[in-house]
Amino acid sequence: MPVIAVVNRKGGSGKSTLATHVAVWMSRRGEKVMLGDVDRQRSTVPWLRRRAGQAVPGEPLHGWASDARNVLRPPPGVRHVVLDTPGGLQGFDLGRVVMYADILLLPLCDSLFDRESAAGCLEELRAHPRVASGRVQVGTVGMRLEWTGHAAGRLRAWAGELAVPMVATIRDSRAFVSAAERGLTVLDLPEEQTPSERGDLAALFDWIDGAIAAIPMPVVSRPAGGRPVAEPAVNGAAVNGATGHEAPESDAGLAPAEGAARATTAPGQSAADRTAASGIKPAAAARAAAAPSEPQTDLSISLIQIGTRPSGVLGHLRRWFGRSA
Description:
globular, single chain, alpha/beta
């Protein structure tokens, strides 16, 4: 189950706009998507409420609100998760989000304050083992940029200095604001009204497709003389006492990365071709494929609060991680 988290310490950088557009893009392709809001401002909650009254194509979005320390189990059938995170996220809370994410999108506007804040966030992200090893792809997105192109050029130069991909530059447009007022995105508006906005977003969506295709398949055991076997994720609800439904039988035994590859790779096109076309660095994809895969955990494990839960639960998790590592 690919998890895409939109992060930036600075508020007002366009995180909610970016998260809603990514979620709607996936839902319009027939994917079942959970839009998770871990921002205390609950920006996506009223947006989803307005969207519920609109006749829009695609799968309905599963809304959910929590906080960075209380990540719940996705509803049955959900195959993609998009997380809108709060400003000021850092330290333990940021690390928690990175532990469950496969893709990190860092939106920023063209200002000194935005660039400095984003640079600090990138520095902290790169210190995380999952990012450093290439298991988590990180991409920056320029938001609310002027139409002259100068702002996009400055951000691309900034990204080049920090050796981080600037995967898309999205120009400022009233279409984003007017669509959000009705619980919509520019993708829900007539194509003839939003050709430029859709063109800006297309580069972002192509990069996400490539990043999803590069997610390694989790392998935790290898029978003697046989092929590697992907073990299903641990039932986190059983570990921490939470309740939840199991995935439908049609999805049983299907590894998250395999499901993502089926959904994002066109017929006759290999995952490697998709990765090359999307701009993902081959070296990063190779490192992700070669690195020992970590156990696939259920999001509900993060309900456990260090220091507030019985030590037996933490011991159970430590033993499980030790067996699966």
